[in-house]
Automatic annotation (TrEMBL):
Name the record gives this protein: HTH gntR-type domain-containing protein
Keyword Magnesium on entry: no
InterPro entries, per the entry: Bact_HTH_transcr_reg (IPR050679), Chorismate_lyase_/UTRA_dom_sf (IPR028978), Tscrpt_reg_HTH_GntR (IPR000524), UTRA (IPR011663), WH-like_DNA-bd_sf (IPR036388), WH_DNA-bd_sf (IPR036390)
Molecular function per GO: DNA binding; DNA-binding transcription factor activity
GO-annotated biological processes: negative regulation of DNA-templated transcription
Organism: Gilliamella apicola
Any Pfam family the entry gives: GntR
């Protein structure tokens, strides 16, 4: 059975908002413009806008228009913050599911990233990070056993940065990151609930403590529906 037209229209705008195509405070077309675009009645358009409003995605202001109210989560590349911090600061629900946790010997490529000896014991962890129960990030992390002998699945189900700083007492210095658009493999697509070859962002990062020790190398695949990047570009040194 086909969905009612108003629901189809509402879901079209949901996708535009979740993907970031429509951002916070962007204005939607007028009711008349939407009627003309979708060839439907004013009643249908108003029901679609009402559904978006009930979902907390838009706000209708009489005499002004309909504005995007939903604020997608931001990955601030300047100020190093954890996923949980970013999401909860927006009043959203951050979640984590650990799907792989194993002690392994560091292969040459991983040892090089962590600046440890080849074959040194490391934890290999794969997590799915969710926003409001929707999968958003697939993360593969490698962390040295020497720094985290008590690391556990329970720890990785919550905030990694909280564990490093508050439970271990380490001071985090910085994270070097590089971002590249790639196509989702079968495995990435399966865990992020998207189609194979769907465009995703791959974020690779190496994180260091103030002692200069590297405490994590990670590769993340971001679906980009509810999470976006924010950069601040400054001119000169002043």
């Amino acid at each position: 059975m086909a969905k009612p037209l108003y629901r189809q229209i509402a879901e079209t705008f949901e996708q535009k908002i979740y993907s970031g195509e429509l951002d916070l405070e962007d204005v939607l077309p007028t009711e008349q413009a939407l009627q003309d675009l979708y060839k439907v009645s004013r009643v249908t358009i108003r029901k679609a806008l009402e559904q978006l409003e009930n979902l907390g995605l838009v706000e209708r202001i009489k005499g002004s228009g309909t504005y995007v109210k939903y604020n997608s989560a931001k990955h601030d590349a300047i100020q190093l913050k954890g996923f949980d911090e970013n999401i909860t600061s927006l009043g959203r629900i951050a979640g984590t599911k650990v799907i792989h946790f194993q002690l392994e010997q560091a292969l040459p490529a991983i040892a090089n990233q962590l600046k440890i000896e080849i074959g040194a014991p490391i934890f290999s962890i794969i997590r799915i990070r969710t926003i409001d129960d929707e999968p958003e990030i697939l993360e593969q992390s490698y962390m040295p056993l020497s720094l985290f002998p008590d690391l556990s699945v329970k720890v990785m189900q919550s905030s990694k940065y909280y564990y490093v700083e508050n439970q271990k007492g380490y001071q985090i210095s910085h994270s070097k990151q590089d971002v590249k658009p790639v196509l989702a493999t079968n495995i990435v697509a399966k865990h992020l609930n998207i189609d194979t070859n769907h465009p995703v962002l791959r974020l690779r990062s190496v994180s260091e403590l103030k002692t200069g020790e590297r405490f994590e190398y990670s590769i993340q695949y971001l679906r980009g529906f509810q999470y976006r990047f924010e950069y601040i570009a400054r001119r000169g040194l002043g």
